[in-house]
Design a protein that fits this description.
Blueprint: H1 2-14, H2 16-24, H3 32-44, H4 51-63, H5 68-80, H6 84-96, H7 102-116, H8 120-132, H9 136-148, H10 156-170, H11 176-183, H12 190-206, H13 210-222, H14 230-241, H15 246-258, H16 263-274, H17 279-291, H18 299-311, H19 315-327, H20 335-346, E1 365-371, H21 374-377, E2 382-387, E3 393-397, E4 408-414, E5 422-427, E6 432-438, E7 446-449
Parallel strand pairs: 1-7
Antiparallel strand pairs: 1-4, 2-3, 2-5, 5-6
Protein name: Sel1 repeat family protein
Pfam families: Sel1
Organism: Pseudoalteromonas rhizosphaerae
């Protein structure tokens, strides 16, 4: 009986239709002959002697009779033996015969393959394979592959297809991520989605979403998508501040300073974010203590805050602290430390830049350290930063920026919404064609190659 079953199976696998169906169930690299191999190899052995081989034989006989529990058991054996293609074949058979749901079977396998692979093309293949079988994280990554043109030709139509799958999934239990997806610039329905995205953001913010509250505050502060309204900006920022959001603390400090000239209130909010090690807030609070504006003048406290900000990379704090060490203001004179802080400050700006203290409250800034080909600057002089929800964009003419060490330029962007993802493009005013994608915020002094 065993020989008859095996013979029938081999005949079936030799038929074009069966072979086509088997090939259709697996990734492109897995050929029909490879699918046959788990069975053919086993029964080619002259004699089965080990307990493991006998168990394998017994399971295969049940598995080819469409026993899903045997198919799962075989898949587990092959997976443990790192025979991944065989494991996948039997997982798929178990799915087909109702022994395991497809998501658990296929995702388990494809995720394991992703963890084992170092080849970018294989990683893309298995990521897309997992995405096709319902892995939400893989769907998001696949969308990015097509958006960026990594390991596959750039294709915004394909990217939008995956975006729509993500929107459909997120709509079942809406979070702020759904707002971002609806507003994504690759979404052809973005414009008509704006009202519903804003309405959802408001609902989420009132329910305790810190990102939604910060997002609405920023939109009202700068008049992006919504009317510019500082009173409403304060309302939403305070909602976020109730949840100890650094971005909201800093934004409130800036609004009270710049819009109302209320430095006492500004100091209140800056102190909250400075205590959470926000370097912009540390610098601004230091300036207030340095000048005695909104708070009692305290040069020692100012020097401590400058040092905290400078050591975190804040450039204006470096020159202010250097001048304090140089002249013994709020600290003991220390020429060596003054020299060190001057040197780190001059790393960004030309050597002939005046070493004057910067005593103005500064808005939130983000700096990108960019490795660039100096020869390309004259021809492709524009760099533009885009936020993917379409709420922020800014272009810089880099032709007049100093190139440090014949390689680096530093790009400073002001009042960037610290939410979502960004893309940076180089080109001309009318044709921005080459870009890098930035997946983390803030991006102070992060290196990107163009």
């Amino acid at each position: 009986m065993k020989r008859i079953i095996v013979s029938i199976l081999v005949i079936c696998f030799s038929l074009g239709e069966c072979e086509h169906e088997a090939r259709a169930q697996v990734p492109p690299k897995m050929e029909a002959q490879q699918i046959k191999q788990p069975l053919l190899d086993l029964f080619a052995k002259p004699k089965l002697t080990t307990e493991k081989a006998k168990l394998e034989e017994a399971l295969i006989l049940k598995a080819i009779a469409d026993d899903p529990s045997a198919q799962i058991a075989l898949a587990n054996i092959y997976e443990n033996d790192n025979q991944q293609k065989r494991a996948l074949f039997w997982y798929q058979q178990a799915v087909e015969h109702g022994g395991i749901d497809e998501e658990n079977a296929i995702l388990k396998f494809s995720q394991q393959k992703l963890a084992q692979s170092n080849d970018p093309k294989d990683i893309f293949m298995w990521t897309k394979y997992a995405a096709e079988h319902g892995d939400i994280s893989a769907q998001e990554k696949t969308m990015e592959y097509y958006r960026r043109g990594q390991e596959v030709k750039k294709n915004h139509i394909e990217a939008e297809k995956w975006l729509r799958k993500l929107i459909s999934h997120e709509a079942k239990k809406p979070t702020f991520k759904l707002v971002e997806l609806q507003l994504d610039t690759i979404n052809s329905d973005r414009e008509k989605n704006i009202p519903s995205a804003i309405a959802l953001a408001k609902k989420l913010a009132e329910s305790g979403s810190v990102d939604a509250a910060y997002f609405l505050g920023w939109l009202h502060q700068f008049g992006s998508l919504l009317d510019k309204d500082i009173t409403k900006a304060i309302y939403w920022y305070k909602k976020a501040a109730e949840l100890a959001d650094i971005r909201a603390y800093r934004s409130l400090g800036w609004i009270y300073h710049s819009h109302y000239s209320d430095n006492k209130a500004a100091a209140h909010w800056y102190e909250k974010s400075a205590n959470l090690e926000d370097q912009v807030s540390q610098f601004n609070l230091a300036v207030l203590y340095h000048l005695g504006t909104g708070v009692d003048k305290n040069l020692k406290k100012a020097s401590q805050l400058y040092k905290a900000a400078a050591d975190a990379g804040h450039n204006s704090a470096k020159v202010n602290l250097a001048n304090m060490y140089e002249n013994g203001i709020g600290v003991s004179k220390n020429k060596e430390l003054a020299k060190q802080y001057y040197a780190s400050y001059l790393h960004i700006y030309p050597a002939n830049k005046k070493r004057e203290s910067q005593l103005n409250i500064e808005p939130a800034t983000d700096t990108i350290k960019l490795s660039i080909n100096p020869a390309s600057v004259k021809r492709y002089n524009m760099l533009s930063l885009y936020q993917r929800s379409g709420i922020y964009s800014h272009s810089i003419d880099i032709s007049n920026l100093p190139i440090i060490e014949n390689q680096w330029v530093y790009l400073t962007f002001v009042d960037i919404p610290e939410i979502g993802f960004y893309s940076l493009f180089q080109g001309t005013k009318d044709n921005l064609f080459y870009g890098v994608h930035i997946d983390s915020m803030p991006f102070d002094f992060v290196r990107y190659d163009m």
